[in-house]
Design a protein that fits this description.
The chain is α/β, with parallel strands linked by helices and 282 residues long. It folds into 2 domains: 151 residues, Rossmann fold, CATH 3.40.50; 117 residues. The longest helix is centred in the middle third of the chain and has 29 residues. It is globular and about 65 Å long. It starts with a helix and ends in a 6-residue tail after the last helix. 34% of the residues are buried.
Length: 282
Amino acid sequence: MGSAIVDRLVDCDESVVVYDLDQERTDTAVGKGAVGAASAAEVAELADVVGICVPADRHVEAVISGPGGLAKTAKAGQVVLVHSTVLPSTVRDARATVEEWGGFLHDACVAGGVDAARRGEMVLLVGALTDLPDAAVRLLHLLGDRLLDAGPVGAGAALKVGVNVMSYAQFSAAAAAFDLVERNGAESDTLLEAWRHIGQLGRLTESYVSLLSLPADVVAGSMRAYLVATAEIARKDLDLAAELAHSGSGLHGVVTALGEAVPEVFRVGESSSQEDRGGQGG
């Protein structure tokens, strides 16, 4: 997602400074018109608005306070936006750290996928949107065509986890339904036609279901590696959801069940491999 955000801002003729632990990704962004930095600290030195797009909670803290982090060169009035899917408490703790140098931190979590990011059509779930400085609001309007005030800082992160639970629930339902109908002599294409007609098949889920029809020889090699990485992200997001959900509720079991189903949903689980080899799945 970070690369797509950079692409969008460069296409909008914004001055963009990038840093990534993966030098190849930094080089790719520079080749498209961004300026490369040697550390997060250098980004903070050059930019007034800093966006963080990293895999997990611990990386947010590392970008801000770790060796070569933003805190080393940050300045008063600087705005830090957290785009990653993380716990609300992570955002609130990061905000407290940024406030120590007179900066502002808000969650500005993104939803809609990389294609929407490159078109500037994402939904942005922003904590304390009305308190966000104008320079940051202007940039967010370049990234998305819908900015939603999530509530206090941290609420955007909670909403993003909720959005992801809804998405993975739909993917899981589609995978289960495809398996069910095909094992019982019905056609999955007919299932999709019915789903569309009653208005329950959204654009994101319709994009996902194409995975379910791919031949086994396609779900291999680099494609499988991509799906494994995607499944790992999904499982991480659902672990966050399980942490946030009420453990005494039956709904908590729904979240944990979605997490357990992730490998099959993305066709990288053991029973999926058996099916792809022509065996009998469970």
